[in-house]
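Journal club prep — side note

Before the paper discussion, L.F. wants everyone to see what a predicted structure for a comparable chain looks like in token form. Sequence:
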Amino acid sequence: MYCLKKEKLEGHDVFEFMRGHLKEEHWLESSIYMTEEIFQAANLEEILTTTIGNFNYYGPTEITEQDWNRIRKAADVSNSEIAKIVISEIDDWSKDCFQTETCFTICGI
């Protein structure tokens, strides 16, 4: 599993995937986390930049359900098996998120 819950974190160079809009607090129990190494191995920076255009590696980026659908499609045609697995893991989490939220926020490292 590439996406981690808070209690499984061992380091701090991680991306936080936060439910809803950016909140003042971080390290939320409802968030999922991904190390920078996995983020790079999955080529997520390129996928996010090409699909939504405003991805902020070091700050917050809000992802709507429409954005997420484009990201999923881009990963599906990617040659990266890690990208497909990572997007699938985030997708499982995002389905629950989008039931109550209009977006999720990726908080950069």
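L.F.'s comment for the group: The two ends are 20 Å apart (CA to CA). Keep this in mind when we get to the figures.
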